[in-house]
Structures are given as C-alpha cells and as structure tokens.
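$ fold --in a.seq
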Amino acid sequence: MSARRPRRAVQLVARSAARPRFPLVATRSAAIALALRAIPASLAPGGLCAAPAALAVQPASASASKSYDVPAGPLGTALSDFAMQAGVTVQLDARLVDGLSSPGLHGSYSVADGFGKLLAGTKLEIARSSTGVWLVRTRAASVDTPAAADTTLPAVTVAAQNDSPYGPTEGVVAKWSSTATKTGTPIVEAQQSISVVTRDQMTQQNAQTLNAAVRYEAGVQTETRGGVATRYDMLNIRGFSADTYWNGLKQIGSGMYATPQVDPYLMDRIEVLRGPVSVLYGQANAGGLINQESKLPTVQPYHEVGIEFGNDRHQQATMDFSGPIAGDQHYLYRFTAIGRQEDGQVNSTRNERVAVAPSFTWRPDDKTSLTLYALYQRDPASTSYGSVPATGTVLHDPLGTIGRSFYDGEASFERFSRTQEAVGYQFEHAVSDTWKVRSNARYYHIGQDYQSVYGTTLEDDYRTLDRATAVSYEQVNSFAIDNQVEGNFSTGPVDHTVLAGFDYQHMGTHYATGFGSAPSIDVFDPVYGAAIDSPPLTKTRSSSNQYGVYAQDQLRYKNVLATVGVRQDWANTVTSDLTDNTRQWQNDHALTWRGGISYMFDNGIVPYFSYSESFAPQSGTDITGKAFDPERGRQYELGVKYQPKQYNALFTAAIFDLTRKNLLTTDLNNPNYQTQAGEARSRGLELEAKVSLTHSLDVSASYTYLNTVYTKDNSGLQGKRLATIPSNQASLWAYYTIHGGPLAGLSFGGGGRYTGATYSTDNSFEVRSYFLLDAALRYDLGYAIPRLKGSEVYINAQNLLNKTYVASCFIGTYCAYGYGRQVFAGLKYHW
C-alpha cells in the first residue's frame, strides 16, 4: 500500500458524520467565537469551514498564472471556489462579504490578480500574511506588519465545499449527500438517483407534511391517499413503497397503525434515494427511502419565532433557537418547537400537534464530536383516515356527486391520539488522518389509540354506504444503532474511501385490535349519531430483530469512479397471539450487493451505471407450513448528472428497470393459501433540474415517466398496472427575490404540478389526471422600516385554484379526494 496521497481538492474538507454544521477550529478564544456568530447563512457550515492542517492544500505561487473557472454567485462562495482552485487558504471576517455577489472569474490569472478581480468594485482588498495566508480586509485596514496581518479576526478558513452533506444549504441546489453512500459524497459522484429538498425550498413552499415537502421531486408519488393521510407519510418512489428514515436510522412502525411521523419544520433537509438500498440499510422496500435530517446545533447563533394563520381555522406557532452556549463554540445547542391546530378537510375532523426537539453538541477538539438529540411530539387528533366510494366521485352516480368534505365516520366514535418520544446520539472521532469511527443510535417510543368508522361498499341504490369499525391500541418501542469505520487512502494510483459497518434494529410492540360492523349511512344526506359497538379485541405481542454487516469501497482512478458494496443480514420475528395463546416464528437471512461506475468529464458531465438489490421479510407460511422467503428487489439504472461550472445548478437524468420478486399471490391449487409466485416491474425515465441563479432565482423542475405492471400474479392482476401510480408526472417551481430598488426585500414564487391518470386496483376504471397551481409571496419588512430588520411577512397558497380532484383509488373501489385550497399567512422574526 502506498503512502496516502492528497485527494481531489473538492474532497479536502473535514467531513463529519456527526454533522459538520460548524467550522472545525480548535481554539477556545472568545473573540473567535463571537466573530463566528456573524457568518451569514450563505457562508455558514459548508461555505466556510476550517480544515485541519493535515488536510490543508499546499499554497500556490502568488505570481504564477493559472486558468480559473469560478461561477457567478455570492462573493463568499466565489472566494471559496477560487481558493480551492488556486490551492490557497483565505481568512476573512464573514461580515465583510455578507450580501455581496460576484460576477465570477474566467481566464488566466495569478493568485493575487484573481483575488483582486473578484473583489473589484467592493470596498475590500487582498493581502498576504507572513504565513502565506491570504487576508480579505477593508481598504482602510493596514497589514504593514506581519503581526497585524496575523491577528485578523476571525480566522475562518475558506474550503472548497459550498454546502455540507448535512444541514442547511442556501437555495435549492444541494451538491453533497450523506444518504447514498453514508460517507458524505458529492451528488454527481453517487451512482444512484438522489434528490435533496433543502430547508430553503421547504420554506419557500411552506411544506407542512413530508408529502408536501417532496411533491416536486422526480419519481415520488405523494397522492396515494389524497387529503386524508395527514397522520401518515404515505408515498411511493418509482411506483413502489418507500421507507422513511430520520437522521440516517429507519423509522420503525408496528405494522398495524402505529407509524412514526416527524414534523418537517424540525428538519434541515430531506433526501430522496431512489431504488433498492439494502446494501447499506438492511431490510427495505424496493422503492427506496426518504431520509429526514434534523435541525441540529450550529456555531452561528440563530433565533426565530413565527406565527401563522390560514383557512380551516389554521393556527400555528414556531420557534427555532441555536448557537454556542455561553459563547463557547465547543458547546452548542438547538431548540426547535412547533404547535399547530386546524380543521380537517373532511367534516367533523381536526388536526392538532405540538412537537419539541432539543439537541446539544459537544466538540472537545477538531477530531471529536458528540451530538445528543430528543423529540417529543403529541398529536391529540388527526383528520379522517376514511375514503369515498368510486361511484359518485370517479364514476357516474345518477343521484349526483359526493362532496369533497363528506365524512364516512362517526365523530362520537372517532379517535386518534399519538404520542412519540425519542432520544438519540451521533458520535464521530477521527482516529488519524486516514481513519475515523462513527456511531449513530436512537430509541423511539410510540403510544397510539385509534378507533374509527369507515365506509366499505356503496349499495345498488347509489346512496347507501355500508360501514365497518376498526379499533387499535398500540405501544411500540424500537431501537436502532449503526456503527461505522471509514478510511481514506490510496493504493498506487487508486484512491479509496472504504466503509465498514455493523447495524442493529429492534422493535417490540404490544397491541389490541378489533374489527366490526357499523350502521350504514346516506352519502347525500348523512345523519350521524348512530350507536356504535366496539368490536372484540385480539391482543398480540411481537418482537423483531435485524443484524447486518456491510462493507463498501468507493474507488477513484483519474476521472473514473467505481463503487462496490456487499452486505449480509439476519432477521427474526416472534409474534404471539395472546388471545388464542399461539406463537409464530420467522427467521430470514439475505445477502445483497450493489455496484456502480461513472466517468467525470472536465465539463461537469458524469454518466453512470449501477446495479442494486433489496430484501424485505414477509410473514406467513405456504400450505406446507414453510415460512415465506423475503421479497427481493433488483434494479438496473443508467443515468447522467451534470453540474455546470458557470452557475449553481444540478441536472440529473436516469432510466431504470426495477423488479420486485417473491410477491405473495393466491395459490391456484389451494385458493385459501398463498404462494410466492408474484412479481411486479417498474420501468421509467426521470428528469430533474435544480438551479439557483444570481442569488435571486431558484428553480426546481422534474418529469417522470413510469411503466408499472404486474408481470406475474395468480389473482387476476397479471399484465395490469399498479393502482395509484401515474404514467406521467411533471412539476415546476420558481422563486425570485428582489435585492435592489424600490421593491427590494420582496420575494415571490409559484409552481405547477401535473399528475397523469391512474387506475383502480383491478384496472376496471381510470382516475382522471389533474393539474394544480401553488403560489408564494414574502416580504422582508426591514427594507421598508429599518427597525423591523429580521421581520418578514408571507402568504402561501397550495392548490391555488381550489380544484376538486380525486387523488387516487387504492383498494377495490375506495378512493380519496386530494387537498383543496390551503392558504397560510404568517409573520416571522429572526435575529
């Protein structure tokens, strides 16, 4: 093995899986800590990071000329890009460049001339200290002596990374991700399709559910249950179910009704990874995963409070505080909270929530970080989880159309109450310049009471809806831990980033469930108040465990990148029926792997090809008593990513072939049993663009084509399309901010979402396509009234034209209306 060589400059940032949301500096100077508070969001973690000396780039000659290609954008980012390309270190007070932009730099310059060109037209200049560090200062400053230069505060090293694999990113373009590889990798280098929804995008669109946050992303179908699924994050990726993760660990539910859900206001970013992911994450659905990254402590102090009102008696209050404790950047905190209440779209229903998320980070030195975080989220009520029949909504009913607000339940019986509590930690320690270790763990508890009356079948008179009841009382406790070792080294001309890990997941649940009948109701003239009998309950206890070991190597030879990963899993489940005093065991194991290769052209174009696998255990046995094998998924993906150097953007395109095998279907020889002869396939094309131009314009656009079909099935579905999955989806969002002139401080945006036609389960009828418009308007009051600096007012409208549409029909003839118009207006103050 050869000595470790410097890697590409773009990778010379000390990436911390314990979340590098702050400059990694070792000094305890109070002056440094106070100055760091002034770092603007555009330059905060990711834009400006202090790299350890072991990773510093060797200084370039001040007089030698070299060709540079620095895109236009914020001045701090331009200085960062130039410093990276020149191989030098820059120090500055971040307040000097706050709000300044640069036209970029293209051509051949010396280091001094290049900095001078970037700073032209500003009140800033460049000087070089006796240590070779380049210093940005105002022209009135003096660096006549080395001592004067060397005492410039704060000493913040400009690094190449313009955003971090974790935490906030300015605008809508994120260039790094932690989800695809677990190592913190540029998105263009990840050989699998991935999108990042930044905090800026969520704020622009005022996303209040996970479904709303990802509705503009390629390949994601968020309307599988329309406007009644606020209590659950129900969505598909590439036509198949997807898992949700929080801070890199799976959100484990009970399999009944107790499913975790964390409010998106508590998140800094949301990453969508498409396709099988078992090689890094273990048992998983074939569609992919959505990883939500929490707002965690920052070095830069941040304080925000807000209030919001809207239609349907919507009321909301938020707060978000972060920064060093007592001015010491070695101890950081964050406290985020939200409270919300509103009427549901369906009559007689409510949404209520309060969530609190504190966190604390301890950094004893620049090699070690420990973050502790917690969650308390209480949902005393949630809107109906019911449905409407297809006849009278999608299909013609001679008596008329069933209203969007129709309630198929009984308010006197309806109940949904969920409490979620979690504590976790993220730890990282750099053992050396080559090796680092990480550990990420979380305990999660869910307590939930649920009972409901729901519609089943519409009678032949076209108005009488039969109904049933469902009751479930659940307690779920889960624990997950992921331990990793990462190494960066070279063997001859090949650079390696290797990852090895062991993870463990446990879930224990105790629940009592029952299903019964309820009186029918007239869908056109409903009369409520009928006596509802609670059904008898069946008590069940279940416990499951998953152990996994995995290894991955990311190799680089010149412009060729390759990734190879392999994993072995063991999973077991014990389910006890406490009512019948019976017990079932399920033991599974699976070997999964993935591989990918790509080539990085100098112009920013990166074509790639990858193969990946997944597995998911299935409960039950066939007629012989043999336990069912896990469902298996496999995907072939061919794509291209383009990250232009002239401006801040990321373009991606992918075609894929994704297949689920071992699906359960009817045993033709024994119809009362099942066999694993089923198979479903999804093929498609995804196009996505994320663009942030001139520090003013953000654009996010996507198009998805899907061909989903059951390729093998014994129950009559073979050759038919998957329910709720459209063949075509498209979206466009644009947001513009005015920085100068009489309208300075005004931001406005809008977007459109098209969803093509979908089909019922048996494909006997079609659900029509629909197109929805969204809009946003925001104004910074500090531009008009200086003493109100930090205050802003805003208004968002989703489904602006209040279009009535059926989002999907999901089981038999059960259908759901989509969200009607939602209007939110609010005031925020941050300092």
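$ fold --in b.seq
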Amino acid sequence: MSHQKEILADYVSVADRPDVALQLPTGSGKTLVGLFIAEWRRRKFSERVVYLCPTKQLVHQTVQQAKEQYGIDAVGLTGPKSEFSPSDRASYRTGAKVVITTYSALFNVNPFFDDPDTVILDDAHAAENYVAKMWSLEIPAGEADAQPLHQGVSGLLKPRISATAYSRLTGDWVNAADASWADKLPTEDLIEVADQLIAVLDAHADGYRGAKYVWPLLRDHLQACHLYMSSRGILIRPLIPPTWSHAPFQNAKHRLYMSATLGSGGDLERLTGRSRIDRVKAPPEFRKAGVGRRFFMFPGLSLTEDECRLLRADMIKRAGRAVVLTPSGRQAERVKEDVKAIGVPLFEATDIEASKTAFVEANQAVAVLAGRFDGIDFPNDECRLLCLDGLPAAANAQEQFLVAGMGATALLRDRMQTRVLQAAGRCTRSLQDRSVVFVMGGDLENYLADDRLWDRFHPELQSELAFGVEQSVDQNAASFLENLDAFLKNDAAWEEANEVIVTNSADFEENDEPAMNDLSASVAHEIAYMKAIWSGDAERAYEASRQAVASLGYSTLQGYRALWHYLSGSAANMVARVGKADFAALAVSQFDMARQSAPNVRWLAKPRAQIGSTSEESVDARDSNLSVQVEQMEATLLALGTASDRKFEKRAADILNKLGDGKTFEEGQRLLGELLGFTADNTEEAGGPDPWWVAGTSGIVFEDHANAQSTTVFPIEKARQAAGHPKWLTANRPNLAEVNFQVILVTPCTIAAEGGQAHLVDVRLFGLNAFRVWASDAIATVRTLKVMMKGEPDLAWRAEAASALRSNNLDIGGISGSLTAAFVAFSFK
C-alpha cells in the first residue's frame, strides 16, 4: 500500500542510526513493513536479525504471515533454548533467516540470542512489562510458592508502614479502596532496611522461581530500586529498566521499534531505557483516517452491571463468535463463568496460541483473553463482536502508584491510550473491517464515553465514540440487541449510521497534549539519572535529577515533578550519608519542593522525618488525612462514572432513602462515608459500634439511635457503650490501632438519664434530623465536585475537592469540630 511504501522510503534515510521508531497504526500492515526491513537488513548487511513479539501466539502468527503472505522464510523460536533444533540454531548464528521470538527470549539472564545485530521490537508500546520484567522482582500475594517470601518481606516492612497498609499488604481487606491500594516504601526506608531485605531475599530466592533469576540482577543495586506495595503483592524494580546493562540489547547495531503510536512525551525511551530514539511517522493522510469501522456500545450508560452481563451473553449468542478482553485474570474468570452459563464453547489464550483455526471455524465460540490487548488479530468474518471489560490503566504496581498515588496521569497517557485503542482494534484490521465494541467496566466507560477526553483521539474515532454514546443513552436491552442485528445484517440502516459517523468526523479535531513537550525534554535527564544511580554514583544522579525537574514545568505534570524533586532529595541524602554534609540541606530543600509541587498528593504528606527531612516543620495532620480522603473520594466517583450521572444519582438516592428509615439508617451512613471518601465499615458483632469512617490517622465512630423519639430519654447504658467504641475498635480491628477516633452520637433525643454525663464528656452530639439535612447538603457538595471531574485521576481536581471539603467542614476534623459535646447539649434527669 502507498503508506507502506512511503514509510519504507523514510526509514532508509535513518537506517544507519542505532534507535529508530516507526509509527504504523492498527491495521496499517505493520507486520509486513517490519518483516520487509528485517529481511532487507539480513540480506544487505549480512546481519543477524531478531524480531520480537510480546507472546508465543504472536510469534506463530507472524511466522505464518512471513511465510504464507510475504514469501519470507523466517523461523520461529520459542520455548527452552535446549529444544531448538540444530538447523534453527544455525539459521540464527549464520544469519540465514530472520528469527522471530518473544521478548522474554532476549530479555533474560542467559539468552540464546546473545549477539544480534538488529533487534526489531514489534508492538513496542507493549514492551514495557516484557522488557522491565527482567529487572522486576514480583512477590504476589496469595500464591503458595511465593508465600514464605511475601511473609518475610511483609514482616520486615511492618514497623515502617501503617497498620492499615500492613493489613492491606497481607490480605486483610474487604472493600474497593483496599483492592486498588498501591504505595511505595520511601527510598530512605528502603536503604535503611537494605541489609535485612538482602538477607530475607537471599534466604528465599532459590525457593521461589520468580526471584531466582531476577534477584541477582537487583541485589547490588537496591539504591536504584523502588519497593512498591499493593493488595496484589510486592514489587521491587528500578523506575526505568536498565537495558544498557544487558549486552544483547545494548550491543546491537540497530534497534527498530514499531508502534501504533509513537507519542511525543518520551514514553518509548522510558519503556526501553534509550536516551534518544529517532521517529518516522506514518504519512499524514493515513494518521487522520481510521481503519475499519467500530460501533461502540456503552450499555452501562443505561443498564445496571447485572443487566449488562446478561445483555453481553445475549449478544454473544446472536453474534456467533466473540472475543472478550480483560485487564486481569480475575476479571477474565468472571467472564468465563458467564460464558459457561450460556453453554457457548470457551477458548483461552493457550487454546489459540499456535492456531486460531478451531475458534474461527466454530459457529459459536468465545475467546476470553486476560491482558492481551495487542497483536491478536480477528479480521473480516473471524469475529464481529469485541467485548472490552475494564480499563488497562495500570499494568503493574509502579504504574498504579504513579497514577493513583502521585497523580502522574499525563506521564502514562500515551501508554494507556495505546493499550485501549489497540484493544478496540483487534477485529478491525483493514479499511473494510467492522466490529461492535461492547464496553463494560466503569473505568473504561469513563475513558471512552467522557467527551472531555476525546480530543486526544483522531477525528473518526471521536465520531465513532459520539455515535456510540448517543445510541447508548436511555436505552433498554432490546434496543441494544436491535442495533446489533442491524449491524450484523450490514443493511441500509447500518449504512445510514455509517454515513453519519463519516460526516460528523469533520466536527472533531485531534489536539496534542501540551505537557508532552516537557516530558520529551526531561526523558534524557531521567535516563542519565537512572544510569548514574544504577552504578552507585548518587552525586551525578542528583545533578541529572535536578535537570529533569527543570524540564517538567507544565501544570499538569505537578505530580511527576514532585516525584523527581523527591528522587533528587533521595540522591542528595545518599551523598550526605557518605560524608558530604552540605548535601543534607539540599535533600531537605528537594523534599520541601516535592511537597510544594503537589500538596494534595497523599504520599508526600507523610511525616517529613520518614522521607529523610531534618527540618522542624511538620505536615499538618488534618491536611494529610484530607489528602487521603480526597484520593479515596476520587476513586469512588470515578467508579460511579463520569460519562453519565445515572449511577451517582442512584447511589445518592439510595443513601438518602436509607438514612430516612431507622431500620436502614446505619447502612445509609456507611454508604455516605464511602461517598465522602472515607474508608467506611460497620459490624454486627456483639458490643461493636455502629458505622465508622476513617481517613488516614483520624476517624469517626458513630453510636446511632435512629429509632428513638425526641421525647425518649437517652439511657446510661447507651452512653457507656458509645464512650467505649474507640477501645473496641483498637482491640478488634488491628488495622485501626493508629487511628484517633472521635465518637459521634446521632439521636433525636435532647434529654439523657442522670449519671450519663461522665460517659459523654468526649462524645459529640449530632441531632438525627440535623444529620439527615447535613447528609443531603454533603451529597450536594460531592455532586458539584463530580461535575468538575474528568475520567481520570487529576491533581487539579484534588485541589478543588480538598478546598471544598475543608470549607464545608466535610473532613473528619471539620465534622467533629462543628458539633457540640453531648454532655453540654443534653439536659439530664
């Protein structure tokens, strides 16, 4: 095709440079271009060429295309190198054939491909996890073989993390906030426990395969690593993979990166540890056009989650063959249960690894694939129904921490966008292809259905999304099925719809993210920092990190800028530790600037002593707790959806209805706490309190008297019980041991029994009717904040939310501080 010819001609002009990236959008024939270049370099320069794919399935697919479509006699080598045939080994060693293999076959401690001349990275935008995996020590929670090591490291960390963090780390959690939690151990703490950590890992590494090969690469470089904690496990890795330390990659003459999107913020350099990659973009006219036609459906804009799952099952039965992509295995298991319930043959990734034939030839079939957003193609009639269940936003704990913990959304924007668009394009591989894209999952719905995020997409995709949203609002299941039928028939009704999409695309424009220029300017300094800190040169790392900070001036980069101030402070602190005392003041200054850059980032609001500062200034506890509350509120509202108010309004109505009934009051109170950003819970245990709300180190525990009358005399035993609630929580909830609780009594009573005064000294009183009015006003404030949200974590929104919560006394301190002590408010008789 003409665009392939153009990009090959452009490539020749940079073919002698060490690192080159080609932009080839989904469906543009990327594999042909890559294989053509591979074979050309093999013949012209007599080079050993290794062509890397993310998975074995893609290796098989690429080899088949090379031989059957393009006439290139390539060889696929996967699995243990001991099983490679002598002739295949010779094909690589002599450069007789292009070798196609997986990323992991090159990025391991003892690769067979130890001296390639050219390395081609297919789907390079997906390379980060495959490349970084070589230097990523993952200790998953809940896996039997990793459990002894997980317990050992968790026990080592316990004195240095909060009780809540420890309970989340060790699996003692129940709610969504716990499940999405990710945190980073401060670098200073990691350095202080390094010797003990080395001892623990040395003792367990041989017993856990996941550590056996990775740990020796990290053992002498802990000063350059970060330890991340999440409910899914523990991750130890450097911020940027040190590919310069891996000779097979570093010593190659030429590295070619092929990607659907190149990005302009240096993300490809961060993924691969290369300071400079020259870019060859797709021809302008091709970048503007879409490939194939997608009919997006957003059932969550009209239906409940259970209704969406039933609708998906009905659509699968009507469409015949369907592909379901999920970010995680846990989500995939739920989908598999739904598929089994309708009796449709189920295919998993391993079933189609070598060949898709069985799937394609089946009249009814569903392929459920977890974490496979790239490369697996289902063109033409192979599949017309693609279901996406969940947003592939954070592929590991580091990404999770950067987005949710540091608010560095802009940093990963290119990466996340590429994953989503690659996923949405799995069934549209040419201009003539078409598929329904059935979107589930509140986070993915936010990302694709919120028009405030669309200007990053090309105009035709924006038009597809706009049409899909319009067709998904105020609909029932039957109307979605009717639209599916029209699409599958490809009749006049669908042709008319297609014309609307094409015509309306002229109304949309694609805009560049302004922050990308700063990120691009910073990346070379970031890699210079990584090279220095990896080699143990903290002073040189400090200088490079300061240059990185100086490049990150754009407003939306405040979270990422704060991280680099922090890394700069940590590097200065390392220098100070080895005797250069003047660097201690530089460390304090950088830690201060980190907090000033992003005051609403929870992680930076920790006590300054924990991050190595010697300044007497301390972080206000109320600010710290408010940061926790705002972050959790953001996660809750994002889960309720920003593309539509339906779920939020349903939740708000449910809370007010429950608060209006004495029998359901406590559940309404718990749900209200969650909506306000608190970790909220309740118990039915004997002697236990009513709901409690927690943010950081502060909490409220309630004693509810919602079934009483205004004339009821509040009894002494209730007063005694209320006063004892904090002790009960401390004794029965270890994760709350560090929380300072204020007891609040909610009752319509105005009179208490004589003798109750002593128990009510530290108890605050909230009149029942006043609480209900206050709850309605609080929900109104949250509603206003929700309108301001975009479909992603945003530090500017967090600042607005913190201000609104504080000014309306909706944080822990504000709520309790605005109430009168019960023993003063009551009259006693």
